[in-house]
Queue: 4 jobs
Job 1
Amino acid sequence: MLRSVTSLTRSGLRDWLVQRITAIVLAGYVIFLVGFFMLNQPMSFGLWTALFQNGFMRIFTFLALLSMVYHTWVGMWTVLTDYINCPRFRLLLVIVIVLSLFSYLAWAVAIVWGLR
């Protein structure tokens, strides 16, 4: 049986399940933020800062960030393997995507956790 090295879970069914779970986490995060905005009008910088000083919100944000990275990777990997036939060009695109996702995640974690 041929296994793909670049797949997240090395199984199409598990990749599909990861996409669904991460979509639920992201939807929950967006619903929470929309509800927070609607319940706290007018929004102020102090209120926004206080929200992200809360440990629960930092963990929830980190979970949403990881979900976004996994969700993006599974989706992009699927698109690349389906539509890019040249292995070298696909590898180049995979490297660019992985480096981009890693740098976005590191940058976002540094912002959320206040690392300098």
Note: DSSP finds four helices and no strands in the chain.
Job 2
Amino acid sequence: MAEVILTVQHEAGLHARPLAQFVKTAKQFDAKIQVTSLTRGKGPVNGASPLHLLLLAVLRGHEIKIEAEGPQAEEALTALQALVESDFAEGH
């Protein structure tokens, strides 16, 4: 299983639009995506489930671990990492 650890910098954390973008991106790949909140010690949860991600309560500055398994695991991680590091393409 491939993984990456990132810090969420978006002002809303992993909530609302950023959460929707994360789920939309995760669903584009043939991979099982799991997300863990390292800051809160919660998870892992299904990265393609808005409700499960919301329950992690990830805020700005929190560290998350994204794990991916499956035929497109590396591609999924690359896309999700780019999304988080781009501040969910919103530039806040």
Note: The chain has one domain: 2-89.
Job 3
Amino acid sequence: MTSIRRRDWIAGGLAGAAALSWMPAARAFQKSTGRKNLLILMADQHKRDCLGVAGNPVVRTPNLDALARSSVRFTDAYCANPVCTPSRASLLTGLYTHNHQTWNNATPWPYEHKTIAHAFGRAGYMTGLIGKMHFVDAQTHGFDYHLDFNDWYQFLGPKTRLYADELARPNSGSGLPQIDDLWRDEGDPWRDVRENDGRQGSVAVGRVSRIPEQDQFESFVARESVRFLRTHGRKQPFLLISSFLKPHDPFMPAERFANMFRPEDMRLPDTWGKVDLSRVPEEVRNSIRHNGPTPELSNEAEARKRIALYYAGIAQMDDALGKVLAALRELDLEKDTAIVYTSDHGEMLGEHGLWQKFEFYESSCGVPLLIRDPAIAAGAVCRTPVSLVQLLPTLCELCDVTPVGPVDGASIAGDLRAPGRTRDTKVFAEYNLRNYRAKYMLRHGDYKYSFWANDIAELYNLRTDPKEMNNLAGLPENKGKEEELKAELFAWYKPPEIGLKPGAKLPG
């Protein structure tokens, strides 16, 4: 089966079929259908190179490393938008942000754009989503079985207070509230109830969590994923997404994992304090000078503390993820199950003096991507640049499932079968759409070009400058390459934000 691009779907006159394909239909749930199961494991804000198998000497990821050795690992995978909700919408719909219209973390996913759950559900799969997906509103987007933060709070009961203290403010990115609208009319119910911890910004540098390890969200997601596999895994083919929050904030791991990493042992990135501020866009320059969410991180000791806690969060997530993989083996489901591991975006982790995501630098826009298919040779590395927008058509092809609507991404199943072949590809990403400060990225070959509406462009040669410290844009000797990449970017999508006045937004 080949993937179906959005423009080909429409041009082929299949829009009517797409409108009908997601309507309720009788499912032929059978005990044995011969279909391959699909398990998608996700983290939030996992920096691409923070894997032992990628050569990181500090991180502890034994379970992901073992999975990588039986998978194809993509070294140059990118999210389609370096922020939670739009990126996840692209992963599950196969559409870029300007097509799925989930503009930011406060935008509900439009109902008309159907997800991988609709496609696999129509093919007879039981579809489960356990953990974070940042849907914004109450839609379940085709999943039969769904547990999220609100179910975790029901499990926690009075211990939810501990989590409210860790966040210290409303934050749907960390699941409190899970749905912004639930608090919009009456305000924050935890106001004046939380214990303040003296943080200078909205996000704490971090500490050991006061929530017992067995009660934390990672443990909840792992435990309920195992329950799903034991209860439903042998009755019919399944699609299960197990989605963890860590290493996203709050940077408050369980003590067992925090003890693995000492702040004084952490190294600051080589790029720390070395960026030429005159050669980067204003947004980047301002973020380097002052990190609004956590101003303390300008202090080197505090920065090392954050790095240690971030690594602890990865170790805790890896440990929980390992329990899901162990259950898959114990239930004798592994041989019939394709497995994917990825993240919605990365984490700057002090690179360039930046933190969190939101940028097109490799640490932020790059993501880990492991794909294991029991029918394909394992343990290979693929260096072809790819995008998470390509994941849906790829998994549909591997499982012989038909997408239920148009998709922008092309399947990379061929790269799984021939991972040593590095193809010439174009990878796109976008951020902050419908805004004066919108930006768009193209990775083509060795080069990455970022267009900023109403600011200077960025151009990096990733082969000679993998740390992205030497902006080639605007220099006479690079004019030809810059114009070439800008034309390719605009051929993909021409930003409508050009010319907007500062602060203005597109109508509608």
Note: The chain has two domains: 36-427, 432-508.
Job 4
Amino acid sequence: MVSGIERPLDLLNKARGKEILVQLKNDKQLVGTLLAFDIHINVVMDNAKEIENNAHKRNIGLTFLRGDTIIFISPSTVSAEEKQ
């Protein structure tokens, strides 16, 4: 068990309110603040930005992503308390 994460959704719970990176099936990447998610990994993000070739492409803002379009979700940062 790493940092109290026993199940996959535990990672998303810890990332709520923090910045995440989402890779979509259409090869698009989005970065934004995770607001909410459900058991289908449908995701609501705020301040979402589309990233292309590691550079900011455009602002999207508040957005809903359907879970079946997502390849992976990664927390952008690890808090200092989790590193200890």
Note: The chain has one domain: 8-83.
